[in-house]
Design goal:
The protein is of the alpha+beta class. The chain has four helices and nine strands, in the order ααββββββαβββα.
Length: 181
């Protein structure tokens, strides 16, 4: 695992907070916002990680020191009042079933990470859990592989971080793409 004491959570959540805009919370930008959150964590993790989110399915980082694999999930309101997580979809960790209408099963899930980072972009909090906990909580009654982790399934790393001030308009940055095109 990484050394969380080396992570600059104030700066990381500064950029996360800057992306809490109506535009970036819209469904059209959901993937972009996730990528943006990954990049911010990568930048402020003190060079402990390699970002692989664009090249590999079902994982976002490799820990340089141990080669352990990490998936990051972020959600505005990840942790409910009782401490349990809202549902998480493991979109990239099941086999391709597009050619056949095959229903996924727990047995068909492919392990793609060792740890999962859970980022609450509303409460500026972050936790982690293990592949085993995630796998054990898979809900086979759902159309997609979904997981609801209980409070006892994860370890909270930081809570209610006061984000650093970011003097940058994130919406403006993404809208500039239209000007380039």
């Amino acid at each position: 695992m990484i050394d969380f004491n080396k992570v600059n959570f104030e700066q990381f959540f500064g950029w996360v907070n800057a992306s809490n805009t109506k535009l970036l919370k819209s469904s059209a930008f959901r993937g972009t916002r996730s990528f943006y959150t990954e990049l911010a964590f990568f930048k402020y993790s003190d060079n402990q990680l390699k970002h692989v989110g664009l090249e590999e399915n079902g994982r976002d980082f490799v820990i340089k020191k141990t080669n352990e694999l990490i998936e990051m999930k972020s959600l505005f309101g990840m942790f409910k009042k009782d401490g349990d997580c809202n549902p998480i979809t493991l979109k990239n960790s099941h086999p391709n079933t597009k050619q056949k209408k095959v229903r996924w099963t727990k047995k068909s899930i492919i392990k793609t990470f060792d740890y999962i980072f859970l980022v609450d972009t509303k409460k500026m909090s972050m936790a982690y859990s293990t592949w085993d906990c995630v796998y054990n909580r898979l809900d086979e009654s759902c159309n997609e592989p979904k997981v609801v982790l209980k409070k006892s399934d994860y370890t909270m790393i930081v809570e209610k971080v006061v984000p650093a001030k970011v003097d940058y308009n994130v919406d403006e940055m993404f809208l500039k793409i239209g000007e380039i095109i």
